[in-house]
Amino acid sequence: MLEDIRKVLGIALAVVTCPCHLPVTAPLLLGLLAGTSLGAYLSTHLEVLAAVSTALFLGGLALAAAEPGGRLRRSQR
């Protein structure tokens, strides 16, 4: 049960933070952070936003693909 929740959360994190979705998610995030110092920083440094998004995307993929013992899945032949 917890494995399924972990996999779903990993896939959801990967889908939301996918770098190819940045043209849609970046304005939404910057709109939510409008008026804050973090929002001002990210609006002038979009490369930081892209780097964090890529790191979260890869982390979500790793979370979804990891076995409970900590090993990544291998395709079976």
Q: Can you walk through the features of this model?
A:
Helix content is 70%, strand content 0%. It has 77 residues and is mainly alpha-helical. Helix 1 packs antiparallel against helix 4 (46-65) and helix 2 (22-32) packs antiparallel against helix 3 (37-44). The chain contains four helices and no strands. The protein is elongated and about 45 Å long.
Task: Give keywords.
mainly alpha; 70% helix; elongated
Could you outline the blueprint of secondary structure elements for this entry?
Blueprint: H1 2-16, H2 22-32, H3 37-44, H4 46-65
Helix pairs in contact: 1-4, 2-3
What's the quick description here?
It is built from four helices and no strands. The protein is mainly α.
Please tally the helical runs, counting DSSP H or I stretches of 4 or more residues.
Answer: 4
What is the H-and-E element order? HHHH
Reported for the largest beta sheet, the result is: none
Percent in helix: over 70%
